[in-house]
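Please produce the structure of this protein holding xanthosine-5'-monophosphate.
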Amino acid sequence: MAREMILVLDFGGQYNQLIARRVRECNVYCEVHAAENFDKVRELKPVGIILTGGPQSVYRDDSNLPSDEIFKLGVPILGICYGAQAMAHVLGGTVKSVTAGEYGKTEVEVFGTSKLFAGVEKKSVAWMSHTDRIFTAPENFSVTAATKDCPIAAMENPAKNFYAVQFHPEVVHTVEGMKIFSNFVDICGCRRDWKMSSFVADTVANLKAKIGGGKVLCALSGGVDSSVAAVLLSKAVGKNLTCVFVDHGLLRKNEASEVEAVFKNFDLNFIKIDAGERFLNKLRGIVEPERKRKIIGEEFIRVFEEVSKKIGAVDYLVQGTIYPDVIESGLGKSAVIKSHHNVGGLPDFVDFKEIVEPLRLLFKDEVRQAGRELGLPENLVNRQPFPGPGLGIRIIGEVTAEKVAIVQDADAIYREEIFKAGVDKNLAQYFAALTNMRSVGVMGDGRTYDFAIALRAVLTSDFMTAEAAQIPWNVLNRVANRIVNEVKGVNRVLYDCTSKPPATIEFE
Ligand code: XMP
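Below is the modeled complex.
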């Protein structure tokens, strides 16, 4: 049975991958391609097309418009925001600029018996973001929704299956958004049989075809993204993949052996480099956070270079880049190796033909789902973000072996208790850090002068801003008791209540 797919034609809007994701949530395969590439449309034979939003104005000479050929293919088309205006413009309607555009949550009213709005509340909130709008709909179109300032908030020609909405159904603020996507995939006649396992199978097949007998190198951080990318590649090329895992000694307790144990189960060459001492030597006497970060990043590259040289020439380098990273580096541009990558940036000299990024189009939770499909254990798949410089930036001041052991033990207790209490599911990130502060305490009958551990737990979805989580007091109390009793060198436990900004999530 041929695979059914919906094609998203990209006009440069910020939410375009989110559209693809919503379609995948309806169990229909979806890809995003440049709007001007009509050959691709013919080649991919989509069962439906979505025209995205974008920053241009359809009436300007230099604007990007869909080829009118797409309207002759006989497949359902949904235009969103700029895509709606482009549909109106190409099919003979008019679009003009308005003095007062709409931005943000807006009440929208739907009317008539549109299939696109089947089951949708008559009045609901939708996300608007536009300064142009459709003034007259093309011939044979009827208007199916309006807002106070936008009389044509949706229009359609149901005989041709052409639908257009001025608002953004892909954004969570559009309350009925998922229903609209679900209705559209039904209009396209989709079977809805696509699953993450299909993504895994297709990606493995494509990688096999592309790489053939080539040699592939992957820098493993032990995080979710690079692990899932590595396992996908191992399924495709087996022993032609070499994974290099540099243990800089600044990982969480038992993390290095856990990662090693997982990867021993796969048919790949796994090289673990124990470089803990080497990193500690480089960090000796260094207290300034940026210097620490630079030293750790640089040393990582040096170790990786040494191993790569031993392996010899490789054809492909695997990166666990996921979609949010792509947005940062600029969609559509060639792959850029980011300096703030989880493995600290990779060297340029490695002799490879190409970078392979099999997760480039997925969001984090989709990557986790792919990891489960590939048989990775839950504790790896659900791993919270962990910075490339590791515990090096969770130890304020100089990093020593003693301090690493203290923070590892305290963090392990904190994570264990949070997990046992079932609080972990709501938290974006939580960890223990070692303040560089000693204070006076009393243990038994004696005076102590030991370190204070700070506990941090944050709620965030974008990690750019965050608020401190309200951990139940009994959990914090238990953690504090266990840490001061079980971790030598700690006599005080503090909870960090600061949001970001003004603080950051990490301590350095
Ligand atoms: P901050 O401390 O800037 O952290 O609020 C935001 C998020 O980024 C993570 N982080 C890093 N991740 N390499 C990474 O891969 C790094 O150098 C790095 N520094 C911070 C941090 O854990 C949090 O999730």
